[in-house]
Amino acid sequence: MIEEPIDCATCQEQVHEYLHREVSEDLAAVITAHVANCDHCEEIYDSEDKLNQVIQQACQTTTPEEIIDKIRKHIAELG
Fold first, then answer.
1. CA 8, CA 35: separation in Å to the nearest integer?
2. pLDDT grade, residue 2 (50/70/90)?
3. pLDDT in tens, 27-49
4. Environment class of 58 (CB within 10 Å of its CB; exposed 0-12, middle 13-18, buried 19+)
5. CA dihedral defined by 29, 30, 32, 33, rounded to 10 degrees?
6. Which domain does 17 fall in, by range?
7. What domain count does the chain have?
8. Residue 59 falls inside a structural domain
9. Mean pLDDT over residues 17-31, rounded?
10. pLDDT at 8
């Protein structure tokens, strides 16, 4: 079933789910078309996409052992 075109508010409400592929294929097609033709929603999409990339990179970063040791020492001093 092909979805009807959506407005900016609906598009922006769905952009997170869209980026995580949590919307139906039909809704994804409608959002894709809307973002391709709406500069404001494209900016929202780009910002959300960049934020997701930063979060993904941060989750893959390993904390150096010396920092972990300092945190443990500080916690021990508090207790």
1. 9
2. low
3. 999 999 999 999 999 999 999 99
4. exposed
5. 120
6. 8-78
7. 1
8. yes
9. 95
10. 96
